[in-house]
Amino acid sequence: MDESGKYWAIAAMGVAAVLVPVSLMVFSALLSRVRIRPVTPPDQEPRFQRMTYESGMVPTGTANVQFNFRFYLFALLFVIFDVEVIFLLPWAARFLTLGWVAFLGMALFLILVLVGFLYEWKKEALEWQR
Predict the structure, then answer these.
(1) Average pLDDT over residues 75-96
(2) DSSP letter at 46?
(3) Burial class (CB in 10 A: 0-12, 13-18, 19+), 47
(4) How far apart (Å, rounded) are the C-alpha atoms in residues 1 and 123?
(5) In a 3-state reduction of DSSP, which class is residue 130?
(6) Do 77 and 125 touch, CB atoms closer than 8 A?
(7) Is the separation of the CB atoms in 125 and 73 below 8 Å?
(8) Residue 40's closest CA among 27, 30, 49?
(9) Contact predicate 20/12, CB 8 Å
(10) Which of these, 128, 109, 4, lies nearest to 68 by C-alpha position?
């Protein structure tokens, strides 16, 4: 196989990475223009015709529900530590063959993550109740 033949798979993935989202956006735009009028039973009350479907139940209350910001903070911390594990697992699998440079690089990475964790702990970002 010549040199140019090696990159066909990468080019195909690049084309797919562009075509799939673009085609989904075009399909969504086309579907949004289609007007389908629902058939309503004659005995249904007019005030229920434009309501949001809520599992067959009449919705009560308002849609503006306040939630604690700590949910977002915990989700963000989970993502950060999940990415740490993504970096840590391949390194641990090849630990003996990588050498001292990789060991020192991972030690620096873990020290930085530990400093971030200690900062979160000091600022009490991990405490739910204050």
Answers:
(1) 86
(2) G
(3) exposed
(4) 58
(5) coil
(6) yes
(7) yes
(8) 49
(9) no
(10) 128
Alpha carbons 87 and 13: distance in angstroms, whole number? 24
Please write the tens of the pLDDT for every residue from 1-12.
Answer: 567 677 888 899
- Amino acid identity of residue 58, one-letter, is V
Distances (CA, A) of 23 to 18, 30, 87: 9, 10, 33
Q: CA-to-CA distance for 26 and 18, rounded, in angstroms? A: 12
Q: How far is CA 118 from CA 62, 70, 78, 121, 125, in A?
A: 40, 18, 15, 5, 10
Contact between 71 and 129 (Cβ < 8 Å): no
Q: DSSP alpha helices (H): ranges in the chain?
A: 8-33, 69-93, 95-98, 100-122
Please state the pTM of the whole predicted model: 0.46
